[in-house]
Each structure stands twice: as structure tokens, then as C-alpha cells.
Amino acid sequence: MIDILFINNSFVLMGLVNTLGSWYFKSRYKNIAKALTNYTEIQKDTLFDLLAMAKETEMGREYGFADIKSYAEFKAKVPIMGYEEFYPYIERMLTGKQDVSWPSSIAWFAKSSGTTNDRSKFIPVSYETLENCHFEAGKDILCIQYHQNANSMLFGGKGLLIGGSNQTNPLGNGSNYGDLSAVLMNEMPFWANMAKTPDLSIALLEDWDEKIEKMARATIEENVTSISGVPTWTIVVLKKVLELSRKKYISEVWPNLELFIHGGISMIPYKEQFLKLIGHRNISFIETYNASEGFFGLQIDEKPVLTLMPQYGIFYEFIDLKTKEVCDVNDIQAGVNYELLISTNSGLWRYRIGDTIRFTCTSPPQFIITGRTKHFINAFGEELMVHNADNAFEVTCKKHFTELIDYTAAPLFFQAEKEAVGTHEWLICLSKLPKDEWAFKRDFDAALCTLNSDYAAKRKGDLAMSFPKIKIVDENVFEQWLTQKNKLGGQHKVPRLSNSPHLLEEIKAYLKNREQVNAV
Q1: pTM over 0.90
Q2: 321 with 298: CB under 8 angstroms?
Q3: With b meaning 16 or more CB within 10 Å and e meaning fewer, what string describes 30-45?
Q4: Best CA proximity match to 53, nearest among 319, 326, 315
Q5: Quick one: 321 and 429 in the same domain?
Q6: What's the rounded Cα separation, in Å, for the pair 182 and 6?
Q7: Beta strands at 176-178 and 108-112: parallel, antiparallel or unpaired
Q8: Residue 69 to residues 15, 51, 141, 348: CA-CA distances in angstroms?
Q9: Which of 39, 281, 355, 407 would disulfide-bridge 310, Cβ 3.0–4.6 Å?
Q10: In Å, how far from its chain's centre is CA 143?
Q11: What is the pLDDT of residues 30-78, one digit of tens each?
Q12: Domain that holds residue 364
């Protein structure tokens, strides 16, 4: 009888929580609409609020923040910095020094995974960034879902969080570091903690294989209504859930699943695969653009673009990749590839995060992520970006009844006289081999030509680039390569495009060694 009363009370409580949550998040949507109407004014206020807050810090005094009265003066006085240039400030913060570039206490550092061949970075995370950036963005995601789905029952169940795999670690001076997801989970508001699964003992496990197994077992019996994660690793978890539950579709395990919140890599090549696993199409997708440095953009409607969110305490600037001119949100143009600069409420100033974006609309500012400043190929003037490859794979895989798992590519510079032009070399993991591999490769090259006019021009007549060299490898290659580098899971991913063949050669060497071992 007690158990029955408890269960009944639990259902009543969940219903009450969902009713209150629905009312709250529907009512706050007007805040998003207002922000996107007044984004230029909000961005101007953000810049001068940040400068006023930080004027008495070491950086504030060094660059005269108190005397800056316009955006033009800000550009003239404060230099653009990447991580290496900014590291002397971060190094002092890591030793416990405060008031370096931000006035409030820096108690957290997000340890960025970087790429698989770069050293980790330690990004300062302030209380203001946690509360006014990441957690505000989290509320806006829920707000968008309730706004678009009047009958949403998100708070009738729990959200499955598939985050990083590192525990938080003390630095010995009162501060801690960890993957951004670990930092956020440790600081999450009580109401969000109540609505998430699994618990931290599983969510932050470092062994990814163990984590997937325990995560699947811990959540099979839960009423999961939303999932948050990187598409590739989410698919791995969903497959494990189906394996353990012996069900055909995720909708049989979690019938009330209604939302997938995704980011990190493009969802485009994975959406059909995801829908097949779910078993129905009555699910919402919300793309997010967040990083160790802050939360920048959200998908606010069904259009497959991100909206730059101006109200999270981050001031944005944009470097035109062709002209190298720098502007703020007032002077952005649609169709131009920009590198993103940020000044944040954690004390990053004119900081290069390494991402490139292209605006599809300027009012409100909506964009797509085109890649990373290091992750593109322009060896022969082809200017191939990650989003070109993602879209080409979507088209080609659908045509050949297979699914993309992962890929990486780099330029190949031929030395032989008969092969004087270069090309691209690709390693591709697919869920199954296409019936006609040559046709798959031909169609992929054709799709790239259709999507990228520069690539098409260089491929015309094989004058500047010959037909790409494409090798389809088994689906475990990248996963095993990441494992032996101790980079499996969470935020770690294989850089998809590179102007240097170094990474691709490293993976090929691993593949060759693995084949030799298996042959013995």
C-alpha cells in the first residue's frame, strides 16, 4: 500500500512539475523574442558592461578599459588573441591568482579536449558564465521546446545527458578543472539535477566503454523525455540501449521521448540514422552551439540554422576570412565566411575560438557553422569546408543505402610527373559497404562539385585536382584509434578536414599496423 501511495504521489508530483515548468518556459519565450529584436543594442550594452566590470583587473588596467568609449576604440586598444597569446593570463589564474582578466572569483576551468593532436586548453569559467550564459541557454532550450510544442511533457520525465568522461580535478588552490560537461553537471541547479539521468557516478565515468554500458542499464527503466549529446556518441548509446533491452526501436524503450538536443558536430549526415533508431519521426531536434568558452547560438525554429544569442554576456566580433577585416554584429553580411571572436563574462577578450561561421540572415543574425580555422582543405584553391563534406555525405549515403559513421581527409600532393596535380585523400567509416563502391566514390565527388563551386572548378578536367583517393574502412577504425590515444568518448572527435596530411598519415599508419597484427 505504501509503495502504491508513493507511486501515485510521484505521478502527481511529476504532473505538477510539468504544469509549472510548462507555464514558466512558455511565458519566458517573450524574452527570447525581445532579445532578437534588440540584438544590436544588447550587444553594445554587453561590451560596455564587460569593460566596466573588468576595468580594475590586470588586463583592464593594462589596456585602459576605463577609457574605452566606443567599439572603434576597443578594436584599436585591445589586441586579438588566440590561446597561446592569452595563456600568460590563464597561467596566473591556474596558480590561484584572481582579478587577472575578470573581477569575480575563477573557481572553475573547463579543460578543452582540443583536437586529437593538440594539447588540452584550460578555459576560465566564472560564476557569471555559468549562471548567465550556460544555464540561461539551457532554460532557453526548454523554452523553445515548450513554445513549439504546446503539449510538451518534458518535465513529466527525465533528460538523458551524454557528456564528457572526465571527473573534476582540484588544482590545489581552491579551484577545479574538468570537461565542460563535468563542470556544468557539478554546478547544475537543483531543478535541473532532479530532471536528469544518470547520476554523476555514471555520467562522469572516465572509461567510455564502462560508461556506455552503465548508462544504458541505468536509464532503460527511466521515463526519458529528452536526450542531450553529440550525435555520434548518442547513436552509440542508443544502440547499446537497444541491445540490452532487446527492443527494435528506442520508442519502445522510451515512448515519451520528444526532444534531441545536439551539438559538437553537424547532425546532417546522422539524422536519418537517428530516426531509424528511434522508430518514429515525432521528435524535435534543437541544435546548440556551445563550447568551453561559452554558449553562443541556438536553433530557435524548424529552420536548420543557428541564431546568435546576444543576451548571454558575450560580445561577438567577426573576421572576414578573405579580407581579414573585423566587424561587430552591426556590419555582418550574409554569405561571408567569418572567424568568430568573443569577449566574455569569464574574462576572455577578443579571443579566437577557432570556429568559422557563415550568416544566412542578418536580422536576426542566423548562421551555419562552416568549420574550424584549422579544419578545412585549401591546398589547391578549393576552399573545402566541413559543412560541404557533411552535406555531400548526406546526399551520397542516402543514395547508396548506407550511413556515415565518421571520416577524415587531407590533401595528397603527387610527386610523379604523370600525376603532377594533387587531390584529396579520404578515410571513411560507413555502417555498411555500398553495393558499388566506385559509384559511391563517383557520386560523392560529384556532390562536392555541386555544393562547392571552387572545388568543382579545380576538379574540372582534372587540371588542378584529380579524382579523390577514397578508402572505406571498417566502422571501428576511428574508435580504436581514439582509444589508443586515450581520447575515446565525450567531446573528443577526429578532425574531419585538415590542410596537413600529418593526422591522416598517423591514422593510416595505425590502420596498417593493425592489419599486420591481425594477419599474424
Answers
A1: no
A2: no
A3: eebeebbeebeebbbe
A4: 315
A5: no
A6: 32
A7: parallel
A8: 51, 10, 34, 19
A9: 39
A10: 20
A11: 889 899 999 999 999 999 999 999 999 999 999 999 999 999 999 999 9
A12: 17-36+125-372
